[in-house]
Amino acid sequence: MAAAGRRAEQMEATRARLIAAARAAFAEKGYAAASMDELTAQAGLTRGALYHNFGDKKGLLQAVVDQIDGEMAERAKRDATAAGGGFEALLAEGIAYIELALEPEVQRIVLLDGPAVLGDPSRWPSQDSCLRTTIRTLEDLIAARVVKPVDPEAAARLINGAALNAALWIAAAEDPRAVLGKAVDAFRQLCSGLLRAD
Length: 198
Prior knowledge:
Helix content is 78%, strand content 0%. It is an all-alpha fold. This is AcrR family transcriptional regulator. Residues 35-54 bind DNA.
């Protein structure tokens, strides 16, 4: 293997170790309380490795959020596939995203610390990908005359925004489980309003 290939492998291994250590620290202590010195020591690395790979602690949080967000998207896609396609798949994907707000790691890192440090989650790159997927799904459902003729981008933004805001509500609630049922029911009712009556 060439030196450049080995270097790239080592760099990827370093990044993975830092992300794993940060993910554990952020989940346990929260972003603000997680010490960079403890985090890098846990990974067996130096602060210099963190700065070199992520720029700063905020950059490391972004990498952790991206990783968890990707896992959330995969879980939502699996639930959509299990629903068998069509409108039920669209609904299942949104509900899966909302339900993930009950997971402590998702709550703390993605839904509480993420927005506080990284800003509006509706502007995160992962949300753009979800939006494009939802638009395509709606275009297909409109063409199949399952959903009313509505602007697919507008509907996709509202559906994704509803799922995101439901998840944020659950994460911030004193009793997340009590809020979940209300949020899922309202989400289901909102989405069902798009269905054609004929």
